[in-house]
Specification:
Layout: E1 3-9, E2 16-21, E3 29-34, E4 39-42, E5 50-58, E6 63-70, H1 71-84, E7 93-99, E8 105-111, E9 115-122, E10 125-131, E11 140-145, E12 151-154, E13 164-166, E14 172-177, E15 189-194, E16 200-205
Antiparallel strand pairs: 1-2, 2-3, 3-4, 5-6, 6-7, 7-8, 9-10, 10-11, 11-12, 13-14, 14-15, 15-16
């Protein structure tokens, strides 16, 4: 490997899933690492255009969900933005399901000119954090039905592109952020937000120092 962006565990006996770049290449790919045999399976190894960006594991489905975009399309958008001296729009983002055992793939949804900054999953839903500009764009939040691909935009009391995780029961989200949308540093910490009650519950507030990130682990 030349660089690893993400490592996602699955089951104790299952593979580790990586988003990484092979040595001598520049495209981020989805890779399954078998811990027992110490072998790597690279998805779409021959494709030198499609980047993997965000990734998550769903234990109920025993599947990986990842977002991908065309490197050529993204470069075209950068060129257009450079000539117009504006912020670049993202390439289309494709969201797919990969069965961890069979490696069979299924398209869930394609987002036109939207970037999936991060996502998480629980039961039959995916939570997406998206932006409509490559940089300097307010994030939006959506729930996607895994079976149908139906997308529903939701309102969350936060402004963060990463470190947002669906709860195991799918009834809310854990996130790293602030208690205020206007001041990102006010009461910064880890919160739980309930979809139904719309109540933010502090889980851990850092009185001193600064929290860079956190991970939600399920039993």
């Amino acid at each position: 490997m030349f660089a690893i962006n993400d490592i996602v565990p699955t089951t104790p006996d299952g593979p580790l899933v990586l988003v990484a770049v092979k040595k001598g290449e520049r495209i981020l790919k989805t890779m399954f690492y078998n811990k027992e045999t110490r072998t790597m399976q690279v998805m779409h190894d021959e494709n030198q255009d499609e980047h993997t960006w965000s990734i998550t594991y769903n234990p109920a489905k025993k599947a990986i969900y990842n977002s991908q975009y065309s490197d050529k399309e993204q470069r075209r958008e950068f060129d257009i933005a450079s000539k117009k001296d504006t912020n670049s729009r993202p390439a289309d983002n494709k969201l797919t399901e990969i069965n961890c055992i069979t490696k069979q793939e299924r398209l869930i949804i394609t987002l036109k000119k939207e970037k999936i900054s991060s996502m998480s999953s629980s039961n039959d839903k995916l939570l997406l954090v998206t932006t409509n500009l490559t940089n300097h764009s307010k994030p939006e939040y959506s729930l996607v039905d895994i079976a149908t691909g139906k997308r529903t935009k939701i309102k969350l009391p936060i402004l963060t592109r990463q470190f947002v995780y669906m709860s195991p029961d799918g009834k809310g989200v854990y996130y790293l952020g602030s208690a205020s949308e206007k001041n990102e540093e006010e009461g910064r910490g880890v919160y739980y937000y309930d979809f139904t009650s719309k109540i933010q519950t502090p889980i851990f507030i850092q009185e001193e120092g600064f929290i860079n990130n956190f991970m939600l682990l399920n039993k």
